Amino acid sequence: MTRPSYSRLCQGAAAGLLLAMLGACSILDTAGDAQPSFYTLDGAPRASPAAAPRATTAPTLIVNPPHAAAGFDSHRIIYVREPHQLEYFANSEWADTPARMIAPLIVAALEQSGAFRAVVPTPSTASGDLRLDVEIVRLQHEFDVSPSRVRFTLRAYLVDTVSRQVLAWREFDQSIAAAQDNPYAGIMAANGAVQKVLDQLAAFSAEAARNWQRIEARPMTAN
């Protein structure tokens, strides 16, 4: 058995290095021809508690379609490595825009609160006492911290439909650490963050509706 020549050893080492470089694909690489994977926002898995009983005197709530800030209104899944710089995963996308995916989740969370006689998403011919407007401020996987985390920020306004007065508004912000630094772990964290915000949104809307009811029920004083 002959010993391999020096040139053959060098060629083998170079080939091995090339294969290692080709096989090591960063999760943040924006290149590649792989087919994209599609993900949904449907909140964190949880048991569905019985809905709270609805009072017949409770207000009817109209829920407008959510809006999203610039950069967060597409199917692209955003990640951040540097402040103010939005980047996109190459082969991972939302099944729909985040705004459209959370719309039914918002309605379900508000219905579950029992604070409203009815919760009606628009477009609809129904009229209501109050209206909820929401905007997604950000939904991003942040790699500038360790472990990486997903941050979800939602801004909400509750409006009196008759006076068109803003009765209350709040910005909800939740960050959840990802179990791993990859898109799927980010999706799981995103759903957890969305569920926490929805719980807070439902509690906020219920409290604002109760305050509105107390004001509406207050007797008018004579001048």
Apparent shape: elongated
User: Architecture, according to CATH?
Assistant: 3-Layer(aba) Sandwich
Strand content: 25-35%
Question: Which CATH C-level class is it?
Answer: Alpha Beta
Question: Helix count, per DSSP?
Answer: 3
Order of helices and strands: HEEEEEHEEEEH
Q: How many strand elements?
A: 9
Radius of gyration over all CA atoms, rounded: 25 Å
Helix-strand category: alpha/beta
> What is the total number of structural domains?
1
Largest sheet: 9 strands, mixed
CATH homologous superfamily annotation? ABC-type transport auxiliary lipoprotein component
Q: How far is the N terminus from the C terminus? A: 113 Å
